[in-house]
Amino acid sequence: MERTVVLLKPDAVQRGLVGRLLARFEEKGLKIVALKMAVLSRALAERHYAPHKGKDFYEPLIRFVTSGPMVLAVLEGKGAVAVVRKMMGATFGSGAEPGTLRGDFGISNRFNLVHGSDSSEAAAHEMALFFRPEELLDWQPAAWPWIYDFSSGDAV
After folding, report:
1. How far is C-alpha 5 from the geometric centre of its chain's CA atoms?
2. Alpha-carbon distance 152 to 156, whole Å?
3. What sign does the CA torsion over 98, 23, 26, 70 have?
4. Please, is 93 exposed, middle or buried when counting C-beta atoms within 10 Å of its C-beta (0-12, 13-18, 19+)?
5. H helix or E strand, kind and range, residue 32
6. Which of 41, 71, 119, 133 is deepest in the core (most CB within 10 A)?
7. Active-site annotation holds for 115
C-alpha cells in the first residue's frame, strides 16, 4: 500500500467542501491515516512550495495557502499517489474534466481546492513536513476485504 499527502486548501475549507472532498477519496477506497486542520505559516508554505520559488505564481500561491485554515491529510491505498492525482483532475478547474474534484467544484485558474503529492518521494517528504510520525495511524478498515482482493497476499 502507498501513502500520499492531500491538502484541502483555504478555498475548499471556506466553501464548505471538506466533507464532500474527503468523502470522494473514502468512497474510492482510500483510507485516512492522518487528518488535521491548520493555518500554514509562511515559513512552512515556503518550504512546501520551494521548487516553485521565483516563478510568477509563487507569491500569490504563498499568500493563498496561508490565508486561512487548510485540512491536511494522509491517504493510503494501492497506487494512492496516482489515484489521488487522477481524482483531482487538471491543475485549474477551468480545464479539469467533469467527474474530477477540480472539474466538479472548481473554475478558477488560481484557487484550485486541493494539493496531492506528485510522487512517492514527494509524499514521504510532505508527510515529514506536515505530520509527526505518531500522527500517522496504522489501522485496517473493515471494508478493505470488499475493496481489495487480498487472496494472493497483496492487494489486487
Report:
1. 5
2. 8
3. positive
4. buried
5. strand 31-38
6. 71
7. yes
Tell me how many degrees the CA angle 24-29-34 measures, rounded to the nearest 5. Answer: 80
Domains of the chain (ranges plus CATH)? 2-140 (3.30.70.141)
Give residue-wise pLDDT tens across range 16-53. 999 999 999 999 999 999 999 999 999 999 999 998 99
φ, ψ for residue 72 (rounded to 5)?
A: -110, 130
Q: Please report, as a single letter, which amino acid is at residue 156.
A: V
Choose among 74, 71, 70, 91: nearest CA to 4: 74
Pick the catalytic residue: 48, 52, 115, 125? 115
> What pLDDT, in 10s, does the model give residues 49-72?
998 999 999 999 999 999 999 999
**7: β partners:** 72, 115
In terms of Cα–Cα distance, which of 156, 11, 13, 132 is closest to 71? 13
Please tell me the distance from the alpha carbon of residue 137 to that of residue 125, in angstroms, as a whole number. 17
Q: Is 148 exposed, middle or buried (0-12, 13-18, 19+ CB in 10 A)?
A: middle
Question: For 109-133, what is each residue's pLDDT tens digit?
Answer: 889 999 999 999 999 999 999 999 9
